């Protein structure tokens, strides 16, 4: 896949899934080059407790997501310079950095919108057309959650588990991606409705007294449903469903 194609598709994917106010990409320009900034959360770091600790949320957002944004901007600047020089070797070398860090920014921007405090609807089951589609394809919301949890727990290494809308097949599906690969790398017609981060940094703190889930993914996956923002997923589904 061409580097420019990947970057454009990733940015388009973010924009089209902005339902409910958008993802908050933090787009800006430096010397004419498009740059990105860390998006603000729509809730306090501690607002998802006890499902996800405030300390984990703060580190996840301020440290990990910020690192992806910083490295994404750096790689894009290097790409711009390489393109202006016609440096094909450097352009090729930058592809993996842009995919990894751009994907990290895309995935986390979706993830923050997929969560909400209980007081603001977190954990409330999906209704309307998305709820109907889930019942039709998976039998029940409980069956879907079991499938997503099983896929996420079985994922080797680091990655993401998704509830996706396939606009071409007109159906929803459960998908996984490795590392920070955005969902678009699995298919250009796939739209992310819900993405769950199963990297250790999403639930595990090293070198501190408090280790919320002691590096046990199944416990994390079980509890995160208490703060899943199904309203956001439903808005995206309504907007993107054929």
UniProtKB/TrEMBL annotation:
GO terms for molecular function: manganese ion binding; superoxide dismutase activity. Belongs to the iron/manganese superoxide dismutase family. The keyword Cytoplasm does not apply. Its cofactor is Mn(2+). This is Superoxide dismutase. Its main location: mitochondrion. It is found in: Mitochondrion matrix. It comes from Trema orientale. Residues 35-116 form the Manganese/iron superoxide dismutase N-terminal domain. PROSITE patterns: SOD_MN (PS00088).
